[in-house]
């Protein structure tokens, strides 16, 4: 069936009218800031206190855009007679965002939650060499990371939060309980016998006079001395 004359023109005018009546989606950036979703992948933030320099993020990065430098330090033993420990100290953590393809693998493989997505996106540079951001800038972006979403009703609490809350409650209970001075506790231990020793002493029967071997070998006052004693 052949199209009616002028139907194409009417169809085009209908599309034009429908588009003109819609709300505009153009945003006048940077005069108007866009409203981004809360979990937007803008840039990667670093929480360096959690970084143990395990190098997993650098090894797993498909673009090799993460640069890490570190050195080892010796930590003295916490107790007398203990062994000294060595730990890695982070010297440099940088990401070249001119190479990064924002895949998020480094964030996924980090076993200590040191890397996070930040919605910050205003870090363009006029020189591509300035897109390698060091750990100071990565740390600044860490404070723009939104809080994690709330758990679903009835969901199990994460084990990390439960362990942290248990430790905090234990420390609070220790601070509220009055502790006696150390000198008085030492004096009490030195002057009083142990409770177990007191219990064993009470259970042992008193040995009668003359039942021991040493006492049996001695002549009793009411027995005559044996003759021919060798």
Count of separate DSSP helical elements:
8
Backbone shape: elongated
Distance between the termini: 148 Å
CATH topology of one domain: Alpha-Beta Plaits
The helical percent reads 25-40%
Query: What is the C-alpha radius of gyration, as a whole number of Å?
Result: 40 Å
In spatial order, strands of the major sheet run 2-3-5
**Averaging pLDDT over every residue, what do you get?**
81
Identify the CATH class of one domain.
Alpha Beta
CATH architecture name of one domain: 2-Layer Sandwich
Number of strands: 5
Class from helix and strand fractions: alpha+beta
Report the sheet with the most strands, covering strand number, pairing sense and barrel closure.
3 strands, antiparallel
| Beta-strand residue fraction | 5-15%
The run of helices and strands is HEHEEHEEHHHHH
Low-confidence stretches: 205-218, 226-230
Cofactor: [4Fe-4S] cluster
Subcellular location: Cell membrane
Subunit structure: NDH-1 is composed of 14 different subunits. Subunits NuoA, H, J, K, L, M, N constitute the membrane sector of the complex.
Protein name: NADH-quinone oxidoreductase subunit I
